[in-house]
Amino acid sequence: MRYDMSLPWWAWALMGAGLIAFIAMIAASIRRNNGVKRSLFAAPYTLWMILFTVVPVILIAYYAFTDASGAFTLDNFRHFWDSNYTKNQLYASLGPEAAAFITRGTVNVDTLVYSLWMAFLCTVISLLLGYPAALFMADRQMKLGPSLVVLFIIPMWMNFLLRTIAWMSLLEDQGLINQFLRWLGFDGVKLMYNSGAVLLGMVYNFLPFMVFPIYTVLSKQDPKLGEAAQDLGCNELKTFTKVTLPLSLPGVISGITMVFMPSVTTFFIPRMLGGGNSMMFGDLIELNFLTEGNWNVGSALSLIMMILILVSLSILRKADPKGEGGGMV
Fold first, then answer.
1. Is the same domain home to 125 and 37?
2. Can you give the pTM of this predicted structure?
3. Which of 4, 105, 141, 268 has CA 20 to 30 A from 204's CA?
4. Cα–Cα distance between 173 and 178 in angstroms, integer?
5. Which CATH number covers residue 213?
6. DSSP code for 320
7. What's the pLDDT tens digit per position in 15-43?
């Protein structure tokens, strides 16, 4: 089916009016302040955000709530709940005999649930691995701390796709790991094209996003707080649970958000390491946009994912209202 991707006249008019209003606001501000105010230097960034963030969101919302002809509809969201929606509509139109073949398809919902589960596992594993690493790097008595920070940063200089492809040479049937196992006398194991390989690739790629926010918060903590707790009779474990851990929670929440949301929307890792056997929600969105050319359903799925992101950000804001969670070093 071919879809008309042209925008209606009012969409172009809205974008043109927004651009004119933006230019008028800059001119009025210059005139009111008798010159260029310092805040106006942020105008290019504001324009960038409008063109490449606000406008795409508006377009996604437009396609999500319209059909191929541009008419308003909620069928795109019904496609999410029932992946057989189009076929079921056809069966319903053929009469009572064909209505017996109507069955609800759960592919889309199951894919979302699977993606949330994989993202949850990735986040938990990243937290279990990342917090001790961040704690070790932030310890001022450890001379290897700065070196470990560099070791975490260096892989991120490599392209995300190359890092994922590199794991294929390790995990495939004739990869280095299986060759080493055969050299030791063991049989090769199936490491590729399963959920375990996908989870491994996700943890490897997103672990730094958990480590660095926690490390940033821990490195800013005053060491005198721990010394004061020990002076009051706390041992090292109690000092950690009563002082260090509560003060590092903003970094933990920030790390959870920075790992969980990319994990839900990732699509390249399942394709390469899962071999198509593990479809995640990002793959489903890409399938609708690029393979099927169905921008309307793809936009509806993207809008659902945006809602999940907004919920995650709202939780982050409540847990870390002052934005103390830190970020990438």
1. no
2. 0.81
3. 141
4. 6
5. 1.10.3720.10
6. -
7. 777 778 777 777 776 666 665 566 666 66
